From TrEMBL:
Every Uracil-DNA glycosylase-like domain range: 108-285
Name listed for the protein in its UniProt record: Uracil-DNA glycosylase
GO MF entry, a single one: uracil DNA N-glycosylase activity
NCBIfam families: PRK05254.1-1, PRK05254.1-2, PRK05254.1-5, ung
Length: 301
């Protein structure tokens, strides 16, 4: 079973017409109702008190979450990880899995209040040394996967100045507010999809719910103090039918939801290449949050 971390800090990590299926409402739409919503930074949380509240027989199971999950996420998911389904999931994690324990929650190094864009993946790469907790990303020194090569190709088409790097590490995007979330956070070695239906989907659905409520809460509110600490909407990039299902319930007035085919070589030419998502995301973010709301997709140094 996965219990404690190895070293959490080392895990840190011309506009085209949108295809049909890209849904949004302009960022100038009516202000989101905030009555009764507690501001993100005002939600109290004490890690020591939380750890003390965990039942003694579960403390070892939740040690990884307590020590490696970003605090802005843990304070909103702390009760979720105590639920029976999650405890059962942790009890079942007793074989060699990817990514390594210290990297399972690397996605949470992007603070909740700073999230601008969410990219939905399926499950981690199942080969050795590939997965490191960010969907589509691989550590430097690992061959760039085919899907990521197509992602680079699309960025190049939208931003001709982009020079695709020889590596596939997307940590710079995470640092710039891009949440790269796999629906299943672990996988058995050499067995793709092996942890589907084990509980991760329920947990990451809750992660999406948290983003729905508080994603981008600490981004510029344009001088509107009433919106400080309240999520005003983010961009969801959902590539492939699997990802599209994960975001189908979200409010298309609050968020920009962009869907297309998956960047896999088997489907990239069926709607991913040419989808214009990266520029569309930045145009929407700039209108809502100002120039600082944009993501520098080209910076992957």
């Amino acid at each position: 079973m996965l219990s404690g971390p190895q070293d959490c800090k080392s895990a840190k990590p011309a506009a085209k017409k949108l295809k049909l299926g890209a849904s949004s409402s302009g960022p100038d739409s009516a202000k989101i109702a905030v009555a009764g919503v507690q501001r993100l930074n005002a939600i109290p949380f004490s890690l020591s008190q939380y750890i003390e509240s965990i039942p003694q027989d579960h403390k070892h199971l939740l040690k990884l979450e307590s020590e490696c999950m970003g605090k802005s996420w843990l304070k909103l998911l702390k009760e979720e990880i105590k639920k029976p389904y999650f405890i059962s999931l942790k009890n079942a994690q007793n074989l060699k899995v990817y990514p390594s324990p210290k990297n399972i929650y690397a996605w949470s190094n992007t603070p909740l209040g700073k999230v601008k864009v969410v990219i939905i993946g399926q499950d981690p790469y199942h080969g050795p040394n590939q997965a490191h907790g960010l969907c589509f990303s691989v550590p430097k020194g690992v061959t760039v996967p085919p899907s990521l090569k197509n992602i680079y190709a699309e960025i190049k088409a939208e931003y001709p100045e982009f020079e695709p790097p020889k590596h596939g590490n997307l940590t710079a995007w995470a640092d710039n507010g891009v949440l790269m979330l796999n629906t299943c956070l672990t996988v058995k070695a050499n067995k793709a999809g092996s942890h589907s239906g084990k509980g991760w989907e329920e947990f990451t659905d809750r992660v999406v719910d948290v983003v729905d409520k508080y994603g981008g809460a600490n981004l510029s509110s344009g001088g509107d103090s009433d919106m400080n600490g309240i999520g005003r909407g983010v961009v969801f990039l959902a590539w492939g039918s699997w990802a599209a299902k994960r975001v189908a319930k979200l409010n298309k007035t609050k968020h920009l939801i962009l869907t297309s085919a998956h960047p896999s070589p088997f489907s990239a030419h069926k709607g991913f290449l040419g989808n214009g998502h990266f520029k569309a995301a930045n145009n929407w973010l700039e209108k809502k949050y100002g120039p600082q709301g944009r993501v520098n997709w080209c910076n992957l140094d």
